[in-house]
Amino acid sequence: xxxxxxxxxxxxxxxxxxxxxxxxxxxxxxxxxxxxxxxxxxxxxxxxxxxxxxxxxxxxxxxxxxxxxxxxxxxxxxxxxxxxxxxxxxxxxxxxxxxxxxxxxxxxxxxxxxxxxxxxxxxxxxxxxxxxxxxxxxxxxxxxxxxxxxxxxxxxxxxxxxxxxxxxxxxxxxxxxxxxxxxxxxxxxxxxxxxxxxxxxxxxxxxxxxxxxxxxxxxxxxxxxxxxxxxxxxxxxxxxxxxxxxxxxxxxxxxxxxxxxx
Length: 262
Ligand code: IPD
Description:
This protein is an alpha+beta fold. It folds into two domains: 5-142, Fructose-1,6-Bisphosphatase, subunit A, domain 1 (Fructose-1,6-Bisphosphatase, Chain A, domain 1, 2-Layer Sandwich), CATH 3.30.540; 150-260, D-Maltodextrin-Binding Protein, domain 2. 38% of the residues lie in helices and 25% in strands. It has an eight-stranded mixed β-sheet with strand order 2-1-3-4-5-6-7-8, sandwiched between helices. A five-stranded mixed β-sheet has the order 10-9-11-13-12, with helices on both faces. α1 packs antiparallel against α2 (39-60) and α4 (167-177) crosses α8 (252-260). The longest helix is centred in the N-terminal third of the chain and has 27 residues, at 5-31. It is globular, with a radius of gyration of 18 Å. Bound molecules: D-MYO-inositol-1-phosphate. The site of D-MYO-inositol-1-phosphate (IPD) has 12 residues, from β3.
């Protein structure tokens, strides 16, 4: 499968940032045992990855706009196109030496995500999609799962940490969902949670209180893999509200009903 020139640029940027992050991740594993811990080091690794991605993408497409987790928003000469980048999604995992984190890059055109890359360097899994061209993992086409019964399904979420205000709502979601499904996972990377829904590994995912850069690429992956995405509240825009719900075609509605308490 041949991607567009933009997609190839995104893949190149993700691989380059991934190499830098893998090198730093090895160092983080060593720093776990030090008294100071790897906190400052990880902040630097995260910023360096964003610098690498920005240099690649803005070097190749200098007129596009930019939204990055570390460097914020920069309007482009071309107001219709914007990169949306999370250089390190799953920072807490990275900090603790857990090999489950990703680089997430999306291209938005006229308010719609048209190309997406979520790269997991620790497992060398490159998830990518383009509008109308399907979703892929490395060289293989991926699709959402075919499960049709809630009781067989596994869902992923992020449980808010550090006193975030969305904790009580999430605990209520869990109380409603856990008795009617096969399990809930909380692995700590929203971008990979969505990529895993696209790959049929999870049957659905929801999370409150996340940012556009955590989900932009993953939303297109799920859509192009044949799944549905929306917001936790019916009719909202997930990127605007920071509350996302995704699932395969058969389970999206029943799953959404449980999360919405309907
Ligand atoms: C975090 C991850 C995590 C989610 C958090 C996000 P970051 O992103 O996506 O899964 O639960 O809400 O902040 O900070 O590692 O880029």
